[in-house]
Design a protein that fits this description.
The protein has 240 residues and is mostly helical. The chain has eleven helices and no strands.
Length: 240
């Protein structure tokens, strides 16, 4: 037997989990079509992002009132918040840009690598600031209180150890980019841009080159049926 292709293969359980995760992700993300694009908030409704929200909610509303604000509950809030905050910020920006685009602004509101980097970096910088600077902590606590819930931020340098949780948000963003951000084909066509350069972020995130080329050709020729078929069939690259 040839040696090529005889490496380790995913188990049935692993394949089943991957398929289930993908079905869940598509159901949460919504249906995106060339002529009726979905709202650009796929990163914020990613299953991993929503799991972080569930952890944050359970910790703040259940665990802290019963167990008190201690080492475990405090760090758990920080970890979950850092995993979700960058993608929530990105989705909020996307919704504002989508509203501007509908008013005629020449912009693409979908997620980009640049926005993912900016939102992740901004979250990390703000988190570090409120843990190190009392003035920044008071300002952010006051802003949160305006939303209807009193907040107090305790300065604690050890909380900076939670910053690696930003890697979760980074992974979520790359996962969304790899599958083509919601509304991207429609935005490329509306703006009259060549599709191949506009899909550079999708290739960077790891989408198969051949599939990206096929999508670019369909967008340039504006073939909505082919674009919709591509979007409906997007999955993670299959192991060989």
């Amino acid at each position: 037997m040839p040696a090529e292709g005889n490496g380790a293969r995913p188990s049935i359980c692993e394949r089943g989990f991957a398929r289930g995760f993908e079905r869940c992700r598509r159901a949460l993300r919504g249906v995106d079509r060339a002529e009726t694009p979905a709202l650009p908030l796929g990163e914020a409704v990613h299953p991993a992002a929503l799991a972080a929200v569930a952890v944050l909610t359970a910790n703040d509303w259940l665990l802290k009132p019963h167990l008190g604000a201690g080492l475990v509950t405090g760090k758990l809030s920080d970890l979950a918040g850092l995993a979700f905050a960058p993608v929530a910020l990105s989705a909020a920006i996307g919704l504002v840009l989508a509203a501007c685009a509908r008013l005629g602004a020449p912009i693409d509101p979908s997620l980009s690598r640049r926005r993912l980097i900016a939102c992740t970096a901004a979250t990390g910088l703000v988190f570090a600031a409120v843990k190190l600077d009392p003035r920044a902590a008071r300002a952010v606590a006051a802003a949160i209180s305006l939303l209807g819930r009193r907040a107090a931020i305790v300065l604690d340098r050890t909380d900076l150890a939670c910053l690696p949780a930003l890697a979760v948000a980074w992974w979520i963003g790359r996962d969304e980019l790899r599958r083509v951000p919601l509304g991207r084909p429609a935005a490329i066509h509306r703006l009259g841009r060549p599709a191949a350069p506009a899909l550079a972020d999708v290739r960077w995130a790891g989408a198969p080159e051949g599939r990206v080329a096929a999508l670019a050709a369909a967008i340039d020729a504006w073939q909505p049926a082919q674009i919709d078929a591509w979007l409906a069939g997007v999955t993670a690259p299959r192991p060989r």
